[in-house]
Design brief:
about 350 residues; alpha/beta; Rossmann fold; Dihydrodipicolinate Reductase, domain 2; 2 domains; nine-stranded mixed sheet; six-stranded parallel sheet; 15 strands
Length: about 350
């Protein structure tokens, strides 16, 4: 079976990683790359380097990864859809909900695979956590809380921390809970002298009743990527920097002191760091995209044993962007916003 002909547009900090993984993915051949500003990280190697999406399309591609700045997602994505090319667009899907909707509709109209690069879904800790939640290991889930903090990234200029980093937490939370957001309330601040917010504290509630909490900023000297899911049997803590998953179990030792026992609180039980297989999330994401493209072409997966992950669809990416924009509006208007279907 011939390899899928792949292209990459956008050779910045994320694009360089896409280039490496595209070159390593079974059943895929990277045949051309494009960036109007050249190849700052030297990833093109012996692959043709083009300036525009039109020049990239001319190579006769089956699939493309779009890693251009967020403000260009819609323009580049629509050109790829018009050319009939399956596309993975880095998150967020677009700069605005209207732009994201146009992208989703364009790919659907052509019957193309349109995916969004919400890479946290493919982190081994979160993959394992979702499977354990589905298995009922935590019982009823009460809350999903995330912390995503670190220094300001000079590469980000066209969106604020909510759309850049916060969309990770919005997507992974809805995915873990398998439920959409019903309402959000956010407070944000801007301290770095740029146009967009660089720190946000947000709470929310999902349609299934789970409450959420998100602390996201570009103003912390330490880097933190933590998801805590609390339920009736204890808490799971996923650290996506190290791909570690730890279970904090509620205590099961009976209490003889009646007044304490009647309080019905919880106590500390066993703490277990779980042993899980760890593969690079970006590789798993690319394999899921490859397999979705093959399925759309009526072909079987190249190596079905390597990944059972699914793509993040453009409709899912659009829902995430809707929540992000609601958080931005909530922070500006100082009110809780209820999301409608």
């Amino acid at each position: 079976m011939a390899k899928l002909r792949a292209g990459l547009i956008g050779l910045g900090m994320m694009g360089r990683h896409h280039a490496r993984v595209l070159g390593e993915t079974d059943g895929v051949e990277l045949v051309a790359v494009a960036d109007a500003y050249g190849d700052p990280h030297g990833v093109a190697s012996d692959v043709p380097l083009r300036n525009t999406v039109e020049e990239l399309i001319a190579h006769g591609l089956d699939m493309v990864v779009c890693a251009v700045p967020t403000g260009l997602h819609e323009e580049v994505g629509l050109a790829l859809a018009e050319a009939g090319i399956h596309t993975l667009i880095e998150k967020p899907i677009a700069a605005t909900v209207d732009g994201g909707l146009r992208l989703a509709e364009a790919f659907e109209a052509k019957g193309l695979v349109g995916a969004v690069g919400h890479i946290e879904r493919y982190n081994p800790a979160l993959q394992s956590l979702r499977a354990r939640l589905e298995n009922g290991d935590l019982g009823t889930v009460y809350q999903i809380a995330t912390r995503r903090q670190g220094p300001f990234p000079a590469r980000i200029a066209d969106v604020g921390v909510i759309k850049d980093l916060g969309t990770h937490d919005i997507d992974l939370t809805a995915w873990l809970a398998q439920s959409d957001y019903q309402s959000v309330s956010a407070r944000a601040t801007t301290r770095s002298g740029r146009e967009h917010e660089d720190m946000v504290a947000a709470t929310g509630q999902l349609a299934n009743g789970i409450i959420t909490s998100h602390l996201v900023n570009w103003l912390s000297p330490m880097k933190e990527r933590v998801t805590v899911v609390t339920g009736e049997r204890g808490s799971f803590l996923a650290d996506t920097l190290t791909a570690d998953l730890t279970f904090y179990e509620n205590g099961t030792i009976s209490t003889q002191w009646d007044s304490v026992a009647n309080f019905r609180g919880v106590s500390e039980g066993n703490v277990t760091r779980l042993a899980i297989p760890k593969r690079e999330p970006l590789k798993v994401e690319h394999e899921a995209f490859r397999d979705a493209v093959l399925a759309a072409r009526g072909e079987s997966a190249t190596a079905p044993e390597t990944s059972a992950a699914q793509i993040v669809t453009m409709r899912e990416g659009l829902n995430t962007l809707r929540v992000a924009e609601a958080m931005v509006d909530s922070s500006r208007e100082a009110r809780t916003i209820r999301l409608q279907d």
